[in-house]
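Hey, resending since the last one bounced:
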Amino acid sequence: MSTMTLEDRVAMLEQELRMLKQQLAQPAIVPWWEQINGVFAATPAFDEAIHLGRQYREAQRPSEDKDGDVPA
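The structure tokens again:
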């Protein structure tokens, strides 16, 4: 068993308590994109927006030339 005195043990506990209180007083900064992650899960409108966005991006791609000719 340790030979620490009661006063030493109380002082150590008080120091640990101060450190814990300090950690609680400083909230962790969470980026905004992590705070809203999953907010629109299972929302049909969000699924439709994803689908429409994909359709738009695919429509913006240049069409593939099947003859292999490159327009001048």
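The chain has a mean pLDDT of 87.

Sorry for the duplicate.
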